[in-house]
Every structure is written in C-alpha cells, then in structure tokens.
Amino acid sequence: MKMRIKSSPTKLEIENARNNGQLMLLWLEIWPNCHLNCSFCFNHGGRAPQTPDWLTVDDYYKIIDEFIALGGKYLGIPGYGEPFHPRNLNLTLNILEHALQKGVKSYVFTTADLINEDLALQLKKLDVTLMIKFNSFDEEIQDGLVGSRGYTARRAKTLELLIKLGFNKPEIDEEGVTTRLAFVTSIVPENGEEIKRIWEYCHQNNIYPDIDTILPKGRGRDYTCSSAEKIEEIFKALTGHEVKSPTYIDGHCDRTMYGLYISYKGEIFPCLGCKGENGDKACIGHIKSGLTLAWNCTLEKKIRSRDYSGKCTTCEHYIDGKCNSCIGRCCTKCTEDCIEMDGCSFYKKASI
Ligand code: SF4
Ligand code: SF4
Ligand code: SF4
Questions:
Q1: What is the dihedral sign for C-alpha 85, 86, 88, 92?
Q2: Is the CB of 82 within 6 Å of ligand 1?
Q3: Mind listing the pLDDT tens digit for each residue in 273-299?
C-alpha cells in the first residue's frame, strides 16, 4: 500500500483543486533563524538580524485566514530557518495552533534535534507531521554535512521519542496508509551508498522517504552534487525505473499547480525557486495586497496550465505528465511573456 504523509492532500483533492484552479496548499516561511550550517542550505542558514519587514504573528494569522477563505486546507512550514529554534519556537507554535483551530493540516520541515519531550507532546496534540532532515545514519558524515558536532546523536534521541509517541503509527485513509513522520534526504556524494538503507529503513518503519536532488539555491548553488549517472543508478536500484523527474525519487512535484509560497517578509512566489527577468526570484505579490490577487495573476495562471517553453517541453517525462519540470531547478526565465524551462540531466527527448 502506498504511503503518504498525513498532512498532505489526497490525489482526489489535488485533481479537484487543479480542475477548479483552487489554492489548496500554502508554504509559509518562518523567520530565518537556524543553529545549523548545512553545506547545501537552500537559504544561507544562520542567525539573521531581525528587520521591521519581517512578518509578525498577526500577519501570519491574517495570511492563514485569507488562505482558508479561498478554500485552503494544507500548510507547509519549510526549513528556511529552523521552526523550533528558540527565536522561532513561539511563532511556530502559534501558527500551528491557529491553523489547527481553523481546520488546516500542517507539516513542518525540521532538524528535529531541538525537540524535547515537552515539545514533542505539544506537536502531537497539534496533529503536525514532521519532515526531518536525514542525510545519513553515519555521525561523521551527517555532522559534517550540517556543520554541527553532536547533531546526529541529538536527532537520534528525538527520533526515538517521536517513534515512542507514535508519530510513525500507520493510519489508513481512503487512499492508503499515512504517517506523521518523514525523512527529508537530499542525495549528495557523501550519502550515495546509504540511500538504499535510508529508503528501506523508512519503509520498514512507516516513515515517508522524501528523497530528492540538491536544489541549486543559496549555498546549494555552489555545492558539488552527485553525478546524474550516480543518481540514475540509485533511483533504478530503489524503484526499478529510470529517473523521471529531479524533484522526487519516486514521483514528481506538482505543488505549483495548487500552492503558493510566502517568504518571511510577506512576498508571494509561485514556489521556492523562481527566476524573473533579471535573475532574481519572480515575486508575484505581497500579502499586503492579498493572496487572491497573486493567485489570479497572469504568471500564476501560466504556471498552473504548464504554459512553458524551452527544452523541458520536448522531454518525454514532461509530455507523459511524469514531470512538471521544476521552477527551482530548470527555470531560466519566469515572466508573464515567457516561462523558459531549460531541462535537467534526466532529459529524455520525446519521440514524436
Ligand atoms: S538547510 Fe535548513 S537546517 Fe540547514 S542551515 Fe539551512 S535553514 Fe538551517
Ligand atoms: S517546482 Fe521545484 S522548486 Fe518548486 S516546489 Fe516543486 S520541486 Fe520545489
Ligand atoms: S528535462 Fe525537464 S521535464 Fe524532463 S525530467 Fe528534467 S525537469 Fe523533468
């Protein structure tokens, strides 16, 4: 039976949202404070001096309320900063509480090592799904990748606790089995030989394996990634088929079809990586002018209808619907006139 994270939309919900042009998912950045120093961080994780343009807790509430009014149901908090960092903790809990009260399901990307028993119990009550950074079982490798000695041991302690509290307990819904625990694993040269073990461990323990390739953003831009051949080899060994999208090991990202991404300053983006005319991220609005305006803008409509040009549009995986291309990995231009998707290492020319 296919596993799915509990706070994610079902296939049917996605289909309905896509058919009706409905906003269903919001990724909402938390303030960018982080205690780790990952070598491939898609941000530039660290301690950021707070400025007056950061969203306040009331701003976050207003965003969630507008999102719900538009029919939104799912909230993702990406690890742009660590959501449970002491400087972010109260804000994150307030957001999760507010979302729960309004019937929105949440998932949070986290390093997990700052979660103690008290917090784990609160998160359980808040019905949150935890997406945990997990690149390696090996202490030397993992601590090295995140630039923090002792991280792997701290994370192991939290994992034991979360499993004891039943975060990975299988629950059956109309589409299969769900879990509230996921491992988020980027394939890098250091863990190439371990992906199989991570994948198998996840399946044996009802933990969702969220395995992808490095996103070339922030420090990830200059990171030496695994070769396409190595990634192909890993994918094939695990799934039995060739890589059909760089976005996930077993599937592809379709969030741009029903979701928006909000920065901690309130800027609205189609997703977390999107290039505009001058190479900067393509911002489609600010929460001050509301989500509705951004959701209905020309650029968003073009993205939702996959009105792209460039190499990806001649790729077999794109034509077969196995890949939506990737705004963060392939987009070289993202404007109302033209969204150029320049292909990836897994391009396969379609035979027409
Ligand atoms: S990837 Fe996440 S955990 Fe790592 S430094 Fe960046 S914000 Fe922090
Ligand atoms: S399109 Fe790519 S960058 Fe955007 S959310 Fe999906 S996987 Fe991430
Ligand atoms: S070339 Fe484009 S469409 Fe083809 S697999 Fe890569 S990202 Fe997907």
A1: positive
A2: yes
A3: 665 555 567 889 999 999 999 999 999
- Is residue 107 classed as helix, strand or coil in its secondary structure? strand
Rounded to the nearest angstrom, the distance between the alpha carbon of 324 and the centre of ligand 1 is: 26
Which residue CA neighbors atom 1 of ligand 2 most closely? 326
Q: Which amino acid is at 209?
A: P
Where in the chain does DSSP place strands (E)?
3-5, 25-28, 74-77, 105-110, 129-133, 171-173, 176-179, 181-187, 208-213, 259-262, 267-269, 285-286, 331-334, 339-341
- pTM for the predicted model, two decimal places: 0.94
pLDDT digits (tens, 9 = 90+) for 37-73: 888 787 666 667 889 999 999 999 999 999 999 999 9
Tokens of 11: 């296939």
- For every residue of 212-232, DSSP letters joined together read EEPP-SGGGGG--PPPHHHHH
Question: In angstroms, what is the span from residue 110 Cα to ligand 1's centroid?
Answer: 9
Task: State whether the beta carbon of 79 lies less than 6 angstroms from ligand 1.
Answer: yes
